[in-house]
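Anyone up for a design puzzle?
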């Protein structure tokens, strides 16, 4: 629930693109700080968007949910970002077309919808921030659409594993098969079957809640052969 006014210093640290004195003063005046626990719902399908959240700490997941109960992740909102779908709904007068939930304990600054529209009119720094984030999200969603439409599940899963272990020295994922399935929009059983096949080929190791990538180069070569 909303609490104290936001800290200007924390906003500057998390949102350097918004470092405009007039804009920050306006956010401080109209914004409130909210804290939500991990797993808490943020927005439901068809809900009116009354506020836009600027995330200070934590992470949220935005996803679609099919009638079958299967999920697919559209994108995540990290500290220093906002949910561009929420911003779009506010500016377009639409209701939220997906679901959003906290993946981690979340702290955010909530800006009322009416003020979001005003910021777009009055503050160039705000407009640049929103448009750049919109462009980034659009590119990500188009890539997701391409993968879902044109790539086999095993290809998408190998890309997912490589993407999540590309940092130097990172060779292990702490994720369940269900979490991966929810990200990719498939079933846990299908993910488990593909992972088991990759393990039998010596490319990775499976343990409860963990996936060790023993041979990332081999995984890249197998993926290249599939393309």
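Challenge accepted. My sequence:
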């Amino acid at each position: 629930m909303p609490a104290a006014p936001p800290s200007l210093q924390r906003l500057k640290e998390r949102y350097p693109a918004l470092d405009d004195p007039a804009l920050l003063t306006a956010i401080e005046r109209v914004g409130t700080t909210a804290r939500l626990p991990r797993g808490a719902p943020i927005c439901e399908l068809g809900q009116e968007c009354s506020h836009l959240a600027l995330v200070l700490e934590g992470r949220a997941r935005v996803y679609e949910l099919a009638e079958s109960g299967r999920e697919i992740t559209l994108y995540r909102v990290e500290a220093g970002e906002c949910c561009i779908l929420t911003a779009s709904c506010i500016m377009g007068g639409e209701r939220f077309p997906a679901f959003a939930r906290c993946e981690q304990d979340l702290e955010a600054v909530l800006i009322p919808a009416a003020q979001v529209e005003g910021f777009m009119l009055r503050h160039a720094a705000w407009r640049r921030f929103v448009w750049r984030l919109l462009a980034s999200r659009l590119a990500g969603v188009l890539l997701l659409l391409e993968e879902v439409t044109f790539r086999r599940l095993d290809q998408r899963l190998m890309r997912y594993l490589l993407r999540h272990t590309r940092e130097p020295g990172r060779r292990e994922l702490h994720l369940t098969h269900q979490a991966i399935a929810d990200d990719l929009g498939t079933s846990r059983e299908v993910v488990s079957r593909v992972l088991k096949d990759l393990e039998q080929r010596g490319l990775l190791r499976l343990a409860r809640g963990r996936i060790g990538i023993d041979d990332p180069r081999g995984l890249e070569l197998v993926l290249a052969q599939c393309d």
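A detail worth pointing out: The two ends are 48 Å apart (CA to CA).
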